[in-house]
Predict the 3D structure of the following.
Amino acid sequence: MTAVDRVRVALVEDEAGTRERLCSAVAQSPALELVFTAATAGEIRAWLREGRPDVLLVDLGLPDGSGFEVIEWCRQLAPKAETMVITMFGDEANMIRAFEAGARGYLLKDGTEDDLSRHVLQLHAGGSPMSPIIARQLLTRMAPGAAAPVAPVAPVAMR
């Protein structure tokens, strides 16, 4: 596979250890090319003004803004890029808000590194990778007689 054929991946994750693990997982796949990493919303926004990933991996709880803003910026600045959330926030309100912002995948930080390259390739191919608990919440929400929409809550940076 040539560099031209590889899926270009950028990511924003404020926690250094998690960022390193995600970078390592992406780097292990010959089908993926890690083109940029950021620790803040500001860093990724600045890069998106010129950089064009195929896939952007986004944490929701960032120290200088929200991942929802990052998803929306990506849609504006790199509209062909697919966006996938990787977060600790597994509640319905954050999930719905992320999908409404434009995310097409949603993974919880519960060992996602092992399958990350597969999930990124699925997303790039038109799929919507989700942690099983997120898929269940979405299906429950869509079921006949489901409860009214839940108001989104702003994520709080986890330390």
Observations:
- The radius of gyration is 15 Å.
- The longest strand covers residues 32-38.
